[in-house]
Design goal:
Mean pLDDT: 81
Shape: globular
Radius of gyration: 26 Å
Strand order of the largest sheet: 17-5-18-19-22
Helix content: 25-40%
Number of strands: 22
Length: 518
């Protein structure tokens, strides 16, 4: 039997052996046969605390103040609840300006004057502040009351699963009208928007940007979502002989999305006629026969808001290229979540300009938001001039495809990594942010600094350790609550600029009227 004393001695000897290198190496590590090896130095070992205790980074005061806006309400559980409660305190034009000096949200109170001073403002490329005029003019002229005004929110995995977008959509739809979650692939992603259960028959194939160069028919016409969907048969894609049948199923859940009343299909390359039917409880509510043709087309199917579950059935000898479907209303704001995992936002120059232009015009896109950057962070380089130039070219391509839309670049969020026993911001966050800001300025578009809104350096650590957490333990992605918080801060900044635009427009109109008066 081993005596306890010997176990204790062996344990001490083991600790001594594994800690000895700490007396001789630096925190930078050392190299053996070209392999870099890092080992905690003695200072790190002696000062070690638990991860929670050693990382008591405080949330920036403005993050805490904005947190009061959503603290007592769960945006995921009830998307209208935040807007409804704020509505009792806020005018339709600018959320912060109309608040009393001290206001209450739920059981929380905060100083609104202090909050106004903490807005991270949108940045313009020049003093004219015209970068957002196309979007703001559409709102000021009442276009959402006559037609859909569309906002495309492109981003990487930071917005995947409708994060950030869903909150922004609800705030804009509450202010200007609109319904539905907007554009979706016909083949659902693993992360689906809140309020919709989306499934499909097994004979569908989705082709994405990642499949380019793998012998697909994608080419450079990859659509507005970065891909397309087709239905197939067991005889192979695009084979002939007998009707092929396929379907998609959709179900509304709870009150997590405003009730859409139509489904829009976007498609092209119809080599053979096919039939589309909207079916509920086994009965066809509406059916359309689509003739062959190569050009881009859209089809609208009416969906009664009282119908909670329905399917869209397809029959044909061959499948067209389905670029997207949209769950929407006939008027109001539509904000689309277009997450492209792994992307750094440099794919737009690969698209067919004519096809992209047609899609933008067909959908009446008035604002494009680009939120990328986290995929660049792990690859630390000395200069990000190359990325600045790439992003600038994307902005040019988007402006050429849609000259009547405004563009906002949202800068990279903070990302942290472990150094020694602590988590700290990557050293290249600010250089990437600066490259994005420079590209936006050169491209003549607006910029919003997400990194500054989070609180700057090491803010991700504070967001991860917040109670409740604002970010996940990967130190990259926001939690649902953190995504809502970022969305509220961005919405506030956007709405503040719209309010300023309305005031300036009114003053200019007054000046012209006075000048023309006899």
């Amino acid at each position: 039997m081993v005596k306890p004393f010997r176990v204790f001695v062996y344990f001490l000897l083991f600790l001594l052996v594994i800690s000895t290198p700490s007396f001789f190496v630096s925190s930078e590590g050392f190299s053996v046969l070209g392999v870099s090896i890092k080992y905690p130095d003695i200072n790190n070992l002696l000062s070690y605390q638990s991860q929670t205790d050693s990382q008591k980074a405080e949330l920036h005061p403005h993050v805490q103040r904005y947190g009061f806006l959503i603290d007592s309400l769960d945006q995921i559980a009830s998307p209208d609840s935040v807007a409804m409660e704020l509505d009792s305190l806020i005018t339709d034009s600018i959320p912060i300006a109309a608040l009393d000096s001290t206001a209450r949200i739920g059981t929380k109170s905060f100083n609104a004057e202090a909050l106004k001073e903490t807005i991270v403002k949108l940045e313009y490329p020049d003093t004219t502040q015209q970068a957002l005029s196309e979007f703001f003019n559409a709102l000021a002229e009442g276009q959402p009351k006559k037609n859909i005004v569309r906002v495309l929110h492109y981003g990487d995995s930071q917005i995947e699963g409708d994060r950030i977008t869903s909150y922004l959509r609800q705030r804009l739809q509450q202010q200007f009208g609109g319904s539905g979650v907007g554009l979706l692939h016909l083949v659902p992603h693993s992360y689906q928007p809140a309020g919709i259960i989306h499934s499909n028959s097994s004979n569908w194939q989705k082709v994405t940007l990642a499949d380019m160069g793998k012998g697909t028919a994608l080419g450079n016409r990859f659509g507005i979502l970065g891909g397309y969907s087709i239905f197939t048969s067991n005889r192979g894609i695009f084979s002939k002989g007998g009707f092929w049948e396929a379907s998609i199923q959709l179900k509304r859940t709870g009150s997590k999305t405003r009730p859409f009343n139509r489904l829009r299909l976007l498609f092209a390359d119809v080599s053979e006629p096919f039939m589309v039917s909207l079916v509920s409880q086994g009965k066809a509510i509406e059916a359309e026969m689509i003739e062959s043709g190569k050009h881009l087309r859209q089809l609208f199917l009416g969906v009664n808001p009282d119908i909670n579950s329905f399917s869209v059935d397809f029959k044909g000898d061959a499948s067209p290229m389905f670029y997207a479907m949209s769950l929407e209303g006939k008027v109001g704001m539509q904000v689309d979540n277009i997450a492209i995992r792994g992307s750094s936002g440099t794919d737009f120059t690969r698209a067919d300009p004519a096809a992209l232009k047609s899609l933008f015009q067909m959908l009446n896109v008035k604002l494009i938001i680009l939120q990328f950057g986290v995929n660049l962070v792990p690859h630390v380089v000395s200069s990000y001039d190359y990325y600045e130039n790439q992003l600038y070219r994307q902005i040019q391509a988007l402006k050429a495809a849609n000259p009547h839309a405004s563009i906002i670049v949202i800068g990279v969020s903070d990302v942290a990594r472990k150094e020694g026993t602590s988590f700290v911001s990557y050293p290249n966050i600010e250089p990437i942010r600066n490259a994005q800001r420079n590209a936006a300025q050169k491209g003549g578009v607006a910029f919003w600094d997400c990194y500054a809104a989070m609180g700057g350096q090491n803010s991700m650590v504070a967001w991860v350790n917040a109670k409740p957490p604002l970010a996940s333990k990967d130190y990259i992605h926001f939690s649902p609550r953190g995504a809502n918080l970022i969305a509220e801060m961005f919405y506030t900044a956007l709405n503040a600029e719209f309010d300023k635009f309305i005031r300036t427009r009114a003053e200019q109109t007054k000046t012209v009227t006075e000048a023309e008066a006899p």
